[in-house]
């Protein structure tokens, strides 16, 4: 089987992963409308390609929060990499380092932060955080991550409760016994259930209701008090919230709808990116995840103002294919396709590290 | 079979109900365009979700015409519940009371109003009325309903004649011998057929042409003279008719196209809601039915100005699954999904019992 | 098999007609885009139904060019009715008279005009004409029709050459030996082929190139000189041509694209109707054919300004089902559905014979 | 099998060509979105047909850069015709001459320019050029072409690198041993690979990286210095580049996206044509290729301002069917369909050789 484009990895993963694991990675909330819209929205964007520019030399490196990466694609935080490959997040960390890009490790990793760092010393990594009712647990995680050399703190803002992913409920999804949410072991007592959700008792490896649904913008200040790491907020979809994020002092925004796994029927991320970029007016860096399937999708996101994109499910497909090596294949294909689409669209490197946008129109 | 979302109940009902009963419940007029549009129109509405709001406490109770219900979803009037479950409307009444919501009993019930009330004393119920050529029969029904403690009178305005539901004609639909339109037994003599409809002689348990196609807005005054119950008019789809309804003194409007069973190719109800709400300007309460399949649909309807929604076919699927218990399952799922989507959209309870709308845009 | 709606007749005809005949009737030009658009365009038009109007009495009769018909649906000119039913156009004429409506007999009939008139004396009929290179043949046809009591002359304007209907070319369509274009027997010598169309040598029962592609608006004056019958021009699709038609003194316009059998990818007729009606400003009567499949389509056409509609393929399906009786079934269903949709849309009869339009919006 | 329209030839070629050859001809870049959009965009354009014009005489000849052709359809440059038919480009040249139209011979021909010219002396031909890193090779080609009587030089501007055509990668496409890119034999040494594209090592019969990605608009001046032939630039998709082309002194522009084989998700060519024609304001001739499948597509392109269209894949299907004879069939069908659609749209020849456009609207 030739691995030519990302959908080849998707087909492989669908075929070889246990159904319960595939379903978990593939899941979207409710009717999966937003999950699918993330992809379809890219298809509705058209290039206006320019010809006869010298595209013989193109430098596709960029910097995110001051750190150079080899091309503007990082690894988005996703949970439970051991479901895809035995070495789990250790393989992810190694592949990201090998490709010289950024890996955002999830709170819901099946390896500890320490294991992740030991697997790929010196790699550029950010740590993704949920705020739990047990604030001490969150604080401890932040400080562990900072001590281990993580260079950014990504606060996920769109999960006060877990979205309803029907297949996971049908499958009775839970981690196999030999896997654990290792970073949070023993951190939680079982919380009292909210009466509202008695029929929707899904949870992913942690006690139900361990997450704190009362988090507000002021908790950014609390996080700021815990760490000197830059704070990136993930899950912003509107200009209004982007403005609030800037005002509360974050260093970066990831436009994200959690891969369509939380609120169904919100905007596709590439569509939301436009209004967020416009609202932010360059005050902080803006990234985007969701729906990236081709190198030209990366170019579109950059042309619309993203500094970098992050991939979620495609990284897992790469892991499922061949672990560290498979993920490198995925990244390399995206890199080549990005490079090629940039050349064919007539774009070129500009000294300050930005990309000039000649060439977009929405349908 | 896990019952995770409303379409699971639909699949169950389709599989286990007799075809003639399934077809009757599922039927839409002509090409079923409007029946299907009711659902598709919800899919075209997108949330603009807001993040980092405290959604730990959400009170989803509301009041309709002064009566509190546990969440803004009631049971729309539909006929012949015994086709779905042996106990018929008695089960419906019990489930609605158990979930503390409102049940609109149909004239075309297979239980008498007295049986319905006896099955669930104290439940909040409205009575749905057609105006018959035999006005004495209609008057008697209204006064029976008022005497039995029904708290609202719902006048269906969109059925001067019955819509053409092809499958019912093909099936030669009629009630099984042991079921009757009990509330109207012996009330009607056979009326003289209108010459126009000789090839369309469908009717549903009553003599053809028992309904009065000459009803006009002035008949609201006649109804008003019969009862002190609030009058809710059901079947309004335009701003013009909404204005007329308010001027004729109704207390509530249900935006409805009869589940797409009457005139095909009119507007989807969620689309019509917008202009009705705008025309009414808060003078009376506005509700909507048709196409509600997920909790987030309820949130959309409320965000667009509905005070409450009513479900028709999903209630029948619940009955077909497990009678009273099945209908409670359906309501509970909608309630949980509504609650969850509200949290994920960043909405919260406001003291005056309303919901604030941050977050909608039509595609 | 219950015949409930027009598509039942279509399914019957498709199943029981010889493939070559079905293909001929079903054919559209090229990719059949316009043929299908005629239908789809009706689906994009929505009613704005009004409630609580007295719809107990509705008079659906109308007049076309002064002659009363029982409801605003006539029979469009189509060729070769013997392909559908042995008695051919004689059955068509009888059914139209029985339903008290207008039948436009085609030049391409398989019965003579005399046979048609003898089959249903006293019926309201118009005669459809092509102008042939052999002008004497056309003149003779016009004068025969007038003498036989036809009450209108329909000039087809959209067939300077025959459209390319792929299936007819593949099938090598030609009339069976026992059928003839009887009205034109012996009228034509074989004309010299135009060099341009050597690979497209299809023709339908007449010598190739018998039609005159040099016809212009001035030929209306020639026709006028031949007859006192009102002239109706068929095939107009633009405001510009509608204006020219009025200026050249026609009495009526049929907005038509020949059922999508001539130029593919022109407008759907119901869409073109709007601009034609606006351009004509009531100076002559405007009719429409193409895509009528339900009674509510008739209502839409009338609401958008047509005085009457004409059906083509559905009439042939009726013939194929049961000859005269089958065509009456088709007409009766359309009549009932039209009546019903008018009632459900809240429309009513107005004394001057017109229909009031409350209720349309294009998507 | 009746060959009635171009898709019949497509079906034939798909059935009888070796898969690797079919895939190569059919290939589009990435998801093939643009390849398919080229066709779909024509479907979104509607005629506004006019009636009763004298269409008995229509002269469909036109001139491109001063040379008369029998109708406004030429043969676009495509590679490797021997994959479709043993005689390869020799058959193409003969068919084009027989139909009195223009054939643009590709650099990637499997016959030499000399063989092509010897096969059909006196035919109207242009030569298509890529600019290679080995400029001497390009110069030599240009001068050979001029000496052989080619009458135009077509510079392809949209291929600084080859697009990613997944099926070719999967198939490991390469020419069979007995076929060669004959015009360039021995012209190239193997170039050093660009490090960026290490995983995308596809190439088509030439050493990788033989093309020069540093070409800019100034190289038009270099070409001008080599030859007195008119220069036509192929691959322009924006008004901005059209303006640059005119300013750099080209004689013609072919609006093209390389059949959707280079950058995916740029504009359909018929859509891009509109802005290019508007920008050019008649200063040079504008042509278009991509997506032509019916004679009415040609009419649309002309009505939107193209002087002539060129067909790529349909010509190959014709070759695959019956070589020279099959390609003539394809051209003759297009010619007849073009002629017919022009007649049915009410268009006519105007003395100055142009076509008047009464009749277009975009959806």
Structure commentary:
The structure is a homotetramer of 363-residue chains. The first copy, chain A, has a single domain (6-210, 218-289, 296-350), classed as Aldolase class I (TIM Barrel), CATH 3.20.20.70. In chain A, helix 10 (269-280) links the parallel strand 9 (252-255) and strand 10 (285-289). The first copy, chain A, has twelve helices and twelve strands. The first copy, chain A, is of the alpha/beta class and 363 residues long. Chain A has helices spanning 6-16, 19-26, 33-43, 89-98, 113-119, 135-147, 166-171, 219-226, 239-247, 269-280, 295-303, 313-344; strands at 45-47, 62-64, 67-69, 73-75, 102-105, 124-129, 153-156, 231-236, 252-255, 285-289, 308-311, 360-362. Chain A starts with 5 loop residues before the first helix and ends with a strand. Chains A, B, C, D: The active site is at 258 (proton acceptor). Chains A, B, C, D: This is (S)-2-hydroxy-acid oxidase.
Please provide a brief summary of the model.
Chains A, B, C, D: Keywords: Flavoprotein, FMN, Oxidoreductase. The structure is a homotetramer of 363-residue chains. With 363 residues, chain A is of the alpha/beta class.
What brief labels describe this structure?
12 helices; TIM Barrel; alpha/beta; FMN_HAD (chains A, B, C, D); 363 residues; two-stranded antiparallel ribbon; EC 1.1.3.15 (chains A, B, C, D); homotetramer; FMN (chains A, B, C, D)
